[in-house]
UniProtKB/TrEMBL annotation, chains A, B, C, D:
<feature type="binding site">
    <location>
        <position position="115"/>
    </location>
    <ligand>
        <name>Zn(2+)</name>
    </ligand>
</feature>
<dbReference type="GO" id="GO:0005737">
    <property type="term" value="C:cytoplasm"/>
</dbReference>
<dbReference type="InterPro" id="IPR027514">
    <property type="entry name" value="Salvage_MtnB_euk"/>
</dbReference>
<protein>
    <recommendedName>
        <fullName>Methylthioribulose-1-phosphate dehydratase</fullName>
        <ecNumber>4.2.1.109</ecNumber>
    </recommendedName>
</protein>
<feature type="domain" description="Class II aldolase/adducin N-terminal">
    <location>
        <begin position="21"/>
        <end position="225"/>
    </location>
</feature>
<comment type="similarity">
    <text>Belongs to the aldolase class II family. MtnB subfamily.</text>
</comment>
<feature type="active site" description="Proton donor/acceptor">
    <location>
        <position position="139"/>
    </location>
</feature>
<dbReference type="Pfam" id="PF00596">
    <property type="entry name" value="Aldolase_II"/>
</dbReference>
<feature type="binding site">
    <location>
        <position position="117"/>
    </location>
    <ligand>
        <name>Zn(2+)</name>
    </ligand>
</feature>
<keyword id="KW-0486">Methionine biosynthesis</keyword>
<dbReference type="InterPro" id="IPR036409">
    <property type="entry name" value="Aldolase_II/adducin_N_sf"/>
</dbReference>
<dbReference type="InterPro" id="IPR017714">
    <property type="entry name" value="MethylthioRu-1-P_deHdtase_MtnB"/>
</dbReference>
<keyword id="KW-0963">Cytoplasm</keyword>
<feature type="binding site">
    <location>
        <position position="198"/>
    </location>
    <ligand>
        <name>Zn(2+)</name>
    </ligand>
</feature>
<dbReference type="InterPro" id="IPR001303">
    <property type="entry name" value="Aldolase_II/adducin_N"/>
</dbReference>
<comment type="pathway">
    <text>Amino-acid biosynthesis; L-methionine biosynthesis via salvage pathway; L-methionine from S-methyl-5-thio-alpha-D-ribose 1-phosphate: step 2/6.</text>
</comment>
<feature type="binding site">
    <location>
        <position position="97"/>
    </location>
    <ligand>
        <name>substrate</name>
    </ligand>
</feature>
Length: 246, 246, 246, 246
């Protein structure tokens, strides 16, 4: 299907929970949280065979339903020939995160994926210089219970260890696709992927679970950074595998 | 009474101060404060023999009156056979905090109880590694005057010492009931209970007093954490029982 | 005039800039800034011979015009027999700050006075343990230009030194009246008075100037605290009276 | 043209994207971000030969379209005899930033310029005591991609080094014009100018780009300050011109 401005019916709805209404509303909330300032970040929602995606390079707190792209899922052709069900009639391009969102759909059967530039996520990648943000169960916070194994599986227990892989940033967002894919394969239980000096990708079965998990992980990054800066332990060394008091 | 979707009249009201309207509104405010992100935290209101409780595991900033549970107080049967006056017709479960809220009703005759995951509360539990968050009167802040003895008694004086017990977290929220109960018995003057790496429970005679006290305690946790990180004294040693300058 | 619930006409107005409409609106904004949580803090507005004051001990973000007290200015009798033009018909008491607000009216001819519990103000009183918060002109920030000499005089220059006296807290807010009065006499150029471990009082010719000056001072307290915690100089020593580079 | 209150048609429009509607709305948002408290800061928009400017010394979150000044561009006479198309009928003066905004129009052909007193910008000027805020590409954050060369040119790459000149503050805002001009000539690639102990000026081709770039730079100031305070490297020394791990 060639680009066209047909397909408005795909994004015009009086239902506030229609993805084309939800994406603008959620992005306004993410802006308030400092997650998507400077046109960065965003969210995708997939309902069965339709994927809803915001444009690239626009103020995320000012998106309107008519700005939303709709793509078929799965894509009938290789992604380099990306196919659309609807493109906005404006001079817009789909989010540069699109191939990364696709990782979440294909590898985890996710129904939604969120990308933030949260400073808590970025600081976590700087203060955890290895390839993992990791907090062991003795140090972990209650919010770990809001995260699911692999993002779409069972809820984590308070006793589990949370690990979020950290991949290195690349000049072009699209080029993160392969390293994100590799990290998701290597860490099948991870509910998100941190990108060094950049932000985080988090997914879930639907937009509500993706959003709740993004909030939980962001909370954990924030408190982890605070703990590390305050000199509080956030991770057990190899020998410490029992009861550990601060 | 078996679960049913009858009882909508118990939660549908045009009065903005009806508990089923207040709980959603207050939760939206708590979300803005970072107290109930990731579906955590919440508030209960008790009006005489009726207790209003939000569902578990939902986005707290998106609750609607029809999502509210109503329970009789006191419960006619042991709590393991919890009884309801109204259950939402959706696939919802009452807040996992329910048995902890009951502690506040039964031990303090509270009319409302609030549970937050505030990072100030959590940091306070990490920087006060003993079983008490304690600030002596010389170091204490004006906001102590907003807290009541036992949560439902007389207001504290600026000269009083504030003590909030800290209990250890458990994998399941419900399992905190006994240790919270024990701490409330041991500390009859405490207006709230901190849970390590988790958050805080605060109660009051009604929702207004519970909310004001939660704000005062959260303020004290925040300023206490700032003072400790800045190297300012927050607690007097045993010998220092007189005038102490910073 | 004895207490009565007459006088509603004094607080019911369709003009959004009527003091009885402004006070609730401004208090909602102050709540968002963290200045008046836990029922603390507030604002008074004086228009000629009428003084508008909010109640004590209520949620400041939920005040309504009908909750506003109106007092004559000056008071015909000594303040211990405080006189009212209008008292709300509810079970309310006027703000405990009333005698402190009166200091601003009597000593500075102020048209408005604001009291906040801002944590920036409180931290400033803890990190400046002497009786003054002081930043010399070489270290001072642009925002000093938003502050007026004595609160109601000419605007400060960027080259001026800003001094805000710090008085010690007392168990009862009313008991601060005399020490605040003494500090205002001793520091005729000060635009506000800090209260240790408590907050700040700031006044101006009208509510707009009082609010703008409160924002400027709060900004200066915040940046002063950040500078001090970062080890940056905020005050010149006696010998350093010339050009000083960081 | 002499001052008059004619010209209301220049600022009354039902189009929410008319500059006289946008400036008040954007200023409300900037107030929420802490960028324009205490009447400081602001934004100008230029549409071809018309320049829209807010008044000086007013609460930026309460501006209304009728408060907006309209000036012709370019100015027919030397700027000391500033010419207006419309002046508000109130007792208002145009923003003291006007000559600085003109720098952005004349030197960069900007369509909008924003001035904030963001504490992140001010802290950056204090922690980077030299004449430049500089972060090399190895340390730089993803948000650098949201900044354009010279403010109105091509987007920066993640591999570029970001440099923002820092000029010294002056007692009168207008007196910054020459040093800002000199810095813009010396740093033709800079997208903004920091003013020590004061704030930042950022411009772009239009208001959307100016706002997005202000957000990106503010993000970079904030994370740069956090990194420096956490002891993380933000700039490479002369010898470190290759791969550098933290």
């Amino acid at each position: 299907m060639s680009p066209s401005d047909n397909g408005d019916a795909l994004v015009i709805s009086s239902d506030p929970y229609h993805p084309a209404n939800l994406i603008p509303e959620l992005c306004r909330g993410f802006y308030q949280l400092g997650w998507v300032t400077g046109t960065g970040g965003g969210i995708t929602i997939r309902l069965g065979e339709k994927v809803y995606i915001a444009p690239s390079g626009v103020q995320k707190e000012r998106i309107e339903p008519i700005h939303i792209f709709v793509l078929p899922y799965p894509q009938p052709y290789p992604e380099t020939d990306r196919v659309f069900l609807r493109r906005p009639s404006l001079n817009l391009k789909e989010s540069a995160c699109t191939p990364l969102f696709w990782n979440a759909f294909e590898l985890r059967d996710a129904g939604s994926c969120i990308h933030t530039h949260s400073q808590h996520a970025v600081m976590a990648t700087l203060l955890w210089p290895s390839g993992e943000f990791k907090i062991s169960h003795q140090e972990v916070n209650q919010m770990i219970k809001g995260v699911r194994v692999g993002g779409t599986g069972r809820a984590l227990s308070y006793l589990d260890t949370l690990v979020v892989p950290i991949i290195e940033n690349t000049p072009n967002e699209e080029d993160l696709k392969d390293s994100m894919h590799a990290a998701m394969v290597k860490y099948p239980d991870a509910a998100g992927i941190l990108v060094r000096r950049h932000g985080v990708y988090v997914w879930g079965n639907d937009w509500e679970k993706a959003k709740a998990q993004t909030e939980c992980l962001d909370y954990l990054f924030e408190i982890g950074v605070k703990m590390k800066l305050a000199g509080l332990p956030t991770e057990l060394s190899g020998e410490q595998n029992g009861n550990v008091a601060i």
